[in-house]
Amino acid sequence: MIRIVKTLILPGLAVVGLFLAGAVVIGTGRAAPPAQPVSEPGASPFTSYVSGSGLTETPGRTIGIAAFSSGVVTEVAVTAGQRVPKDAPLFRLDDRTERSARDQRRAELVSARAQVTEAAAQLDDYRAQLRFAEAVTDRRAISAEDLSKRRLAVRLYEAKLATAQASVGSAEAQLAQAEATLDRLIVRAPFDATVLQVNVRVGEYASAAALSTALVVLGRQGKLQVRVEIDENDAWRVRPGKPGRAYLRGNAGLFSPLRFVRIEPYVVPKSSLTGSSSERVDTRVLQVVMEVEAEDLPLFVGQILDVFIEAEPLTLKAASTGTP
């Protein structure tokens, strides 16, 4: 029995194994079928055009808000997506020390004003005494020395009043400074804006130093714009005033006409796609800013669109040499 297993069954198993191994090798050598796109990409409506990726942004681009001074956040007054008017509070820092300083300055101002009132009253008294003395016609009733002292007293209290008034001015300036310092702990919107991001929480320490991520990100209100990056090889074909069309990725049925806004006449390296500082991008692009005309498009700031812009025909023209 053992001899039959060795002579018949084991060789058969070996042949089956070789057959299976060959099938696996042949299967892995075949090319993988191409992945089907989630949605068909949009097509250009123009006969001659340039295309590129566009990044949506608010008018005038977005701005990052930082704190004027460092401190612990005690209140966050906005949420992402909220519209806020100019000077609306965004967040507040701990202000206990600054409020104490302000209250002290207020007390000093009250004291300085009281000193002015006191000096003015004393000056009025000495002026009245001087007028009474000068009104005496009989010089035997008042000595010249006494009259001179009264005149000096008036001049002295005029100087004291001026000093007290200067102290009031100084106290008012110090109070204004303390109130300004206190007000800077309330970070406000610099213009009518839409809150795009809120990256600060109550209890966190907000630093006034430069940050990689802004505490609050704001965008100006208005129609969204698209910053389109055109390869520098096609930059010569771009002309001001030409219309465009933008398609949402993932659904070519969602698109919008684009209105020309401006060309930023400075060719720059193509934007990093991964956000990594080590990414190398050798392509240089011309940035064209277009306005999204469709108002009902489900579009968000920072979204990437496929953009087509009407352009000059792809015909090479000889450069002029200035010679006939």
Structure commentary:
The chain has 324 residues and is an alpha+beta fold. It folds into three domains: 49-59 and 222-310, Elongation Factor Tu (Ef-tu), domain 3, CATH 2.40.30; 62-87 and 192-218, no CATH class; 96-183. Helix content is 33%, strand content 27%. It contains three helices and 14 strands. The protein has helices spanning 2-29, 96-135, 144-183, and strands spanning 49-57, 62-65, 71-76, 83-84, 89-93, 186-188, 193-198, 205-206, 216-220, 225-231, 244-248, 251-269, 284-292, 304-310. The strands form three sheets. It has a six-stranded antiparallel beta barrel with strand order 1-10-13-12-11-14. The chain has a four-stranded antiparallel beta sheet with strand order 2-9-7-4, with no helix packed on it. A four-stranded antiparallel beta sheet has the order 6-5-3-8, with no helix packed on it. Strand 11 and strand 12 (251-269) form a beta hairpin. Helix 2 (96-135) packs antiparallel against helix 3. The longest helix is centred in the middle third of the chain and has 40 residues, at 96-135. The chain is elongated and about 150 Å long. The N and C termini lie far apart (104 Å). The model has no long low-confidence stretch (mean pLDDT 84).
